[in-house]
Write a structure and sequence with these properties.
This protein is an alpha+beta fold and 579 residues long. It has 18 helices and 22 strands. Strands 3, 4, 5, 6, 11, 12, 13, 14, 15 and 16 form a 10-stranded mixed β-sheet that branches. Its cofactor is FAD.
Length: 579
């Protein structure tokens, strides 16, 4: 049985009624969060995204929900307070994807950086790089703890000397003097969390519509001209307010609409993902977070049975795709050796790389690491849109997306003269609603919903989708025939993948591998798996044999070009890394 994709259905709905009170351009986490917020108020709202949802800057995150301890040095106390508050809130409203993350800082000196810190605070210039010593880090963590007073969402920090540090983490560099340990939070599946945010907005009612692969390309007849990137067809959407939430591309979106702006000055951040069991074990489930000797903050992060290493902070050229370079890989390998000097790390262990551009404000000669991570909303008008109010979002990050979306929605509501009726503060997101908070509650949930798929499988699905796993279980139960694990990735099943493709706005094969599942991130892609999921997608979406082949070839090319993973020729049973 084939079906028209959810994406095609949404575009058809827009063509039939190309008007709205609010049009949001950009389907990253901030655009999606604002869409959800406005939809919950009953606002007639449309969101368009030129690629797949959450495929730009939001897909290149460090998988952290954090208060931003280093922002204290920038003097961004408001942002730190908001970030810590939102971190604690997300632990409660999105517990299926946001979890406490124990974080350890290895420290190699006692007083280093004390004289340089005030200069950095006052000027935001990097100066000569110096590692921060124990005194400075202790001061920062004490202040950081003071921002987290909501009943103990996470424990307060602790400090240990060399002996106890090496007893706990014996593979650490024996040259360290101290370790500091504190808690932030992780988001293991940021793309899936974003899809939950989108689904919440769409579930609010037919007044909320969102389409991917629909690009804002200009203005026409007082509205925004959009182009269907699959068919090339164009039509105009009119709205009272246009929200430009296109992240690092905000200036480019404004330019396409006929207005020259210079709001953005994003920096590039790259990551590598390693299959290194010894390094994974050495981390003991903790993120290692520290400052390299060039002054950059970096992390070593155990995730999904792999170890992610990041990140860089380099000036970005928006005219070329952001990809992880050879120099960045050398940098990552060197920094791991600084923390775990006896653990070999090689290029052959890299299973995936990714890179993106942070949506930071234009910053002239401010050092990239000191560019504000805060956000602002810039109102204006664009000639081709007449009296339509245009709100351009500058900045924003994953941790604060709910608060930012509330702020942006409030500005939008004021512009259209509508009162807020629903608060998103404390409102569960997607599969976080009713998520079992204790082991006994989890057992009860599995016993209640696992009859059709078995207890073990129900537990996997609960972890993967939160309480929205019930929809997947229903799809499996209604599958035509016997559901089977994927031969090339048995933790997923054919009915499960079919459900994702039919219901989650999948247009291309890459949408499945890169954002609906973790298969690419964990290095699980093989030629047989591409063909297996290609077959499921073709059956679900009615692809011709030629279209299926094109999709498989295009995805493998994207995997090689953007993520440095080259599938072997032949049967494709192994993946080798582009080096």
């Amino acid at each position: 049985m084939t079906t028209k994709s959810a994406s095609r259905v949404e575009i058809q709905r827009l063509r039939e009624r190309p008007t709205a009170k609010v049009l949001i351009v950009g389907g990253g986490i901030n655009g999606l969060g604002t869409f959800r917020d406005l939809a919950l108020q009953g606002v007639d709202v449309v969101l368009v995204e030129r690629n797949d949802f959450v495929s730009g800057a939001s897909a290149a995150s460090s998988h952290m929900i954090h208060g931003g301890i280093r922002y204290l040095e920038n003097g961004e106390f408001r942002l730190v307070k908001e970030s810590v508050t939102e971190r604690n809130g997300l632990l409660k409203i999105a517990p299926h994807y946001v979890k406490p993350l124990q974080t350890t800082i290895p420290i190699f000196s006692t007083f280093s950086g004390i004289l340089a810190a005030p200069l950095r605070f006052l000027t935001h210039k990097q100066g000569k790089p110096r590692e921060r010593g124990a005194f400075l880090i202790k001061t920062g963590l004490t202040i950081y703890d003071s921002f987290s007073r909501d009943g103990g969402s996470v424990p307060r920090h602790s400090f240990h000397g060399r002996r106890k540090s090496l007893e706990t983490l014996p593979e650490l560099n024996p040259g360290l003097k101290y370790t500091a340990t504190y808690f932030d939070a992780s988001v293991h599946d940021p793309e899936r969390l974003a899809l939950d945010v989108l689904a919440d907005g769409l579930a609010a009612g037919p007044h909320a519509r969102a389409a991917n692969y629909l690009e804002a390309v200009g203005t026409k007849d007082g509205g925004v001209l959009v182009r269907d990137r699959e068919t090339g067809e164009e039509f105009t959407i009119t709205a009272d307010v246009v929200v430009n939430a296109s992240g690092p591309w905000t200036d480019l979106t404004n330019a396409a609409l006929g207005q020259s702006t210079r709001f953005m000055g994003g920096t590039k951040g790259s990551h590598i993902v390693l299959d290194n069991p010894r390094l994974l074990e050495a981390c003991q489930g903790r993120e290692m977070f520290f400052e390299n000797n060039d002054g950059r903050i970096v992390l070593i992060y155990p995730l999904k049975g792999r170890v992610m290493v990041g990140t860089t902070d380099l000036e970005a050229d928006m005219s070329v795709p952001a990809v992880c370079t050879e120099d960045e890989i050398d940098y990552f390998i060197e920094l791991v050796s600084h923390v775990f000097p006896t653990i070999p790390v090689t290029r052959e262990q890299i299973v995936y790389t990714f890179s993106g551009v942070r949506p930071l404000p234009h910053h002239d000669d401010t050092a990239p690491g000191f560019v504000s991570r805060d956000y602002r909303i810039v109102p204006g008008t664009i000639a081709g849109l007449g009296d339509t109010t245009v709100l351009s979002l500058v900045g924003g990050k994953w941790t604060t997306f709910r608060a930012l979306s509330e702020h942006l929605a409030n500005e939008t509501l004021a512009a259209i003269g509508v009162e807020r009726t629903v608060s998103t503060l404390g409102l569960p997101i997607g599969g976080g609603a009713g998520f079992p908070a204790t082991p006994s509650a989890e057992r009860d949930w599995i016993a209640r919903y696992g009859a059709d798929v078995g207890a073990e499988r129900a537990g996997v699905l609960l972890k993967r989708y939160g309480t929205k796993a019930t929809f997947v279980i229903d799809a499996i139960a209604g599958w035509d025939g016997q559901d089977e694990p994927l031969a090339a990735a048995p933790s997923y099943s054919r009915a499960e993948v079919d459900h994702l493709i039919r219901t989650e706005h999948v247009v291309h094969l890459s949408d499945v591998f890169l954002r609906r599942t973790s298969l690419a991130f964990t290095g699980s892609i093989t030629g047989p798996l591409v063909r297996e999921i290609g077959e499921i997608a073709a059956n679900a979406l009615g692809w011709s044999p030629n279209r299926r082949t094109e999709e498989e070839d295009a995805f493998q090319a994207e995997l090689a070009d953007a993520h440095r993973v080259q599938l072997e020729s032949g049967d494709g049973s192994e993946a080798v890394r582009s080096r």
